[in-house]
Design brief:
Elements lengths: L7 H16 L3 E2 L6 H13 L2 E5 L13 E5 L1 H20 L6 H6 L4
Antiparallel strand pairs: 1-3, 2-3
């Protein structure tokens, strides 16, 4: 799988899972997922791209309200890193501000 083969929704879900794995100890809050996201997650789990499942009932309720967990594969980590980097690059190029150095170099009209 490559980023160019992924839909915008798949790339967004991948970054959501990456964030949850890093910042929330793999706990996923499915309230932030729609039916399409759940279908993608189920498919990814079946092919081993991202492991995804329910948290055992005796561990619920989680303080965060999470009911599911995720675990990215090495391939998913690689693509998440690339997508995060690409997203940052797009954000930088669409920024609405400029640096003081850029301002100094700007021709005053």
């Amino acid at each position: 799988m490559e980023l160019s083969e992924m839909s915008k929704d798949e790339r967004s879900l991948l970054l959501y899972f990456e964030t949850r794995e890093v910042d929330q100890r793999c706990a996923v809050h499915t309230q932030h997922m729609n039916a399409d996201d759940m279908a993608i997650a189920k498919h990814w789990n079946e092919i081993g791209f991202v492991k995804f499942g329910r948290i055992a009932s005796d561990c619920l309720p989680m303080p965060s309200g999470s009911t599911h967990w995720c675990k990215l594969s090495e391939d998913a980590w690689r693509l998440a890193h690339q997508e995060r980097k690409d997203c940052a690059e797009r954000s930088f190029h669409s920024r609405i501000w400029y640096s003081t150095d850029e301002k100094r170099l700007k021709v005053v009209e």
